[in-house]
Amino acid sequence: MTSLLDLAMAADPAAAYDRLRANQGPVARVDLEPGVEAWLVMGHRELLTVTRSEHLYSRDARHWRLLQDGTVTPDSPLIPMMGYRENVTGADGAKHRGLRRPIEDALGGVDQRALRLGVEAICRTLITGFASRGQADLVGDYAVIVPMLALADLCGLDVAQGHQMLAAMQLLVGSLGEAQEGNRRFEQLIGAAIDSRRRCPARDVTTALIAHPGLTGHVEVLQTIVALVAAGYHTLIGWIAQTLRLLLVDDRFANRLHGGRLSIGDALDTVLWEDPPVAHFPGRYALTDTELGGQRIRRGDALILGLAAAATDPRISAGIEVGNRAHLAWSAGPHSCPAKTPARIIAQTAVDTVLELLPGVRLTVSAEDVPLMPAPWARCPAALPVAFPMPAA
């Protein structure tokens, strides 16, 4: 049985998905952990069916048969990513729409210019901190830090708390042995921010969510922020790092960008098509026996959204052009990402600032030697060691 982690870590994921399609079709069985199987939805058409059919496929993990029967235990490292949460990600229908609206309203109130300037300040501070060395790791020193500090600031957390949140989220998303501890730390930080903003309101997302009539009580506000920040972590760290990786390893891509034939926005969309940072997104749970992509899906089965695999679906990939935003990196249907605009501002500012402040930056290892973070969900470089001319004294 193919492991989801092996697919995420594959040197050539498109070839790995092609082999799986050849054997099983656009919907294939994979292992999440030993003894825990799920369906990986790799077909573009099938993925749209799953995300748009709430009457057949639920986001509520309480419908997961392997969770109900004890195969997946409460201490499983899968729980932080796939277990039930009392937030927008675990709801369907009217309840989901009611929990989503506060997020849309809070994000709609974000000052986009202030966000861009704030992110630029974060980026400049980080780059200034390592520029005098003439070398850096653009993942560890930059890409994993920028989005979390930006999201922390949006939610009213200071820089130190943003770093603590980053450490907790890195444990959580790995779905390894420390995922449960990461989840606990993460929720503690968010809970403390909510308590602080109840005492001292401010112009931030946390205050807006506390005041929103669509949310009632501490738990709903906390879990809404958990969902928002977790989704931002998944997408932004990988999105920034993958775009920087592409600029560093693909001369044709970089030349088109520097020559003005490709904008940063086009570059970001190319990455979402070719190597989306969230490769596998959990999850959906079948509400009834049904058929999908030639497979018999049983009630209670778990389905994983193969966002990266859908981009390589041979039925649609031949028509992809640069700038086409029909990719599924944001998912689709009622649960599609509500934070596309702030996410794009953060990612674009992060890439722009590197290009501005680090002219002549180059990778110091071969493209084949760029490692990946060991996670079944997110496909992200673990390191991008670079060198660049040191600024004049």
Automatic annotation (TrEMBL):
State which residue ranges cross the membrane: none
What the entry lists under Gene3D superfamilies is as follows: Cytochrome P450
Q: Which InterPro entries match?
A: Cyt_P450_B, Cyt_P450_sf
By sequence similarity, the record places it as follows: Belongs to the cytochrome P450 family.
**Protein name as it appears in the record:** Cytochrome P450
Please report the organism this UniProt entry assigns to the protein. Answer: Actinocorallia libanotica
Top-level taxonomy: Bacteria, Bacillati, Actinomycetota, Actinomycetes, Streptosporangiales
